[in-house]
Amino acid sequence: MLTQEENEMLTRVGPGTPCGELMRRYWHPIAATVQLDDNPVRKVRILGEDLVLYRDRSGNLGLIGPRCPHRAMHMEFGIPEAVGLRCPYHGWLFDGTGRCLEMPLAPPDSTFKDRVRTTAYQAQEMGGLIWAYLGPEPVPLLPRLGLCEPENELRQVIGHTLPCNWLQVMENRGDQQHDIYLHGRLFQYALERQGKLTDDPYARYNATMRQQAERLERGTYTMPKIVRNKHGFTKGVRESDGPEDVWRLGGPVFFPYLVYPNGGSRGSIRHDYQIGVPIDDVTTWHISYRSYTFPPEVRPPRQTRIPYVDVPIQDENGKYILDYVLGQDMVAWYAQGEITDRTQEHLYEGDALIIAYRQMLKEQIEIVQQGGEPMNVFRAPAENVPWGAMLEGWPEATIKAATQPSVRRQKNTTDYRFSFHKVSHGGWKYIEDDVDRYCPDRELILKLYEEADKLMQQQA
């Protein structure tokens, strides 16, 4: 339980707020690259600030204030020029630093333009996303994220706009125990309501609840654990009656809000980042960043651009979409309200990860308040290496289990992710159970999964 003052401190991200000042020390995604390909000027909102993002005709990115300083014309209607963005009202031209380069209707000898500026922030591209930095100078390096590197050849980006604060998105993704009922019983219920519930033993919803029934029969439960590291933390869970040195690792966290759900596991085809971007205090842009790694013999076509799709959280009839895993995650985030009232919660032993993340967030806020530099702010190129899972601090048996090639086991609740291309007992392909069903290149992904499956069968 938090006090109201603590809840405000940890959730509010606008200018001048404690968490907002922390967040302004980091780079944040603000758009997908392909969105600027479709329209080189677009309005964006990040950390409670309205801005305009553009690409000029020389390919330069700019991120500037939303209105022209002259007569408040909105710059989303601006015209990209060879350098900068021109206001369509009287032609004032601004570059990416906020300088006014031209006032074409002013006298030729006027120097008034030299005294006019607009708000401007840094913007860079990486991995099919455009990132912004809204903090003080000197500007830190944009962190390198492994899945965003060019050698990851087949990538997809899926976005959801959520009507809730960023913190409940982040801390609930750190929850290791929600999968039992959220992706088990709720999944079953959502399909039951649609008349689609099956007895498929490999479907996640049935495999999950079968495992839970076995725990209840044994009188056991799952135990969460967190291990901090220099970038954030890794999390794990084990059965209370299982070996004490074998933990099933969940997604490592790159502070402040990136999670790598299957980070550290080898043998998976699909890898993904989940990024919960604070648009403002009550809106989060959730990004599912997918990267598919197939055997060397299965070669996807070269991507010239990384596709992006916006997916609604409600169907055409206004009903919330709950029949896939991320849809269930998201309802657990936004159904807590715009900003969770943490003065009313009752945490127990299973919430150790939630408590640990809040403590880390509070520590980093205090570092900034004291004039220090928070974690994951990189200045030296030698320190800015591609981020991946960090397994230090875990028992040797846990590391071995996490890093050996994945072996399919009948009771593994995520086996269906090896079988996206196969038809379930319900008559639909297993890809329908996950957010991957919305991938722009869905049919290509299914084809490559099938090729990889045939190859593995030949090699078995």
Write the layout of secondary structure elements.
Elements (H helix, E strand, L loop, with lengths): L3 H8 L6 H6 L3 E6 H6 L2 E6 L2 E7 L5 E4 L14 E2 L4 E2 L6 E2 L5 E3 L17 E7 L2 E5 L20 E9 L3 H8 L5 H16 L9 H15 L3 E8 L2 E8 L8 E2 L3 E2 L3 E2 L10 E11 L2 E10 L15 E3 L14 H10 L17 H18 L26 H8 L38 H18 L1
Parallel strand pairs: 11-19
Antiparallel strand pairs: 1-10, 2-3, 3-4, 4-9, 5-6, 6-7, 7-8, 9-10, 11-18, 12-13, 13-14, 13-15, 15-16, 16-17, 17-18
Please give a structural write-up.
With 460 residues, this protein is of the alpha+beta class. The protein is built from ten helices and 19 strands. Strand 7 (93-94) and strand 8 (100-102) form a beta hairpin. Helix 5 packs across helix 6 (204-218). The protein starts with a helix and ends with a helix. The model is unreliable at 407-411 (pLDDT under 50).
Please work out how many helical segments DSSP would assign.
10
Instruction: Let me know the number of strands.
Output: 19
Beta-strand content bin:
15-25%
Q: Radius of gyration over alpha carbons?
A: 24 Å
In one word, what is the shape? globular
Low-confidence spans: pLDDT under 50, at least 5 residues?
407-411
Element pattern in H and E: HHEHEEEEEEEEEEHHHEEEEEEEEHHHH
Largest sheet: 9 strands, mixed
Question: What oligomeric arrangement do these chains adopt?
Answer: single chain
- Indicate the structural class: alpha+beta
State the helicity in percent bands: 10-25%
For the record, give the distance between the C-alpha atoms at the N and C termini, rounded to a whole number. Answer: 52 Å
Nearest-integer average pLDDT: 93
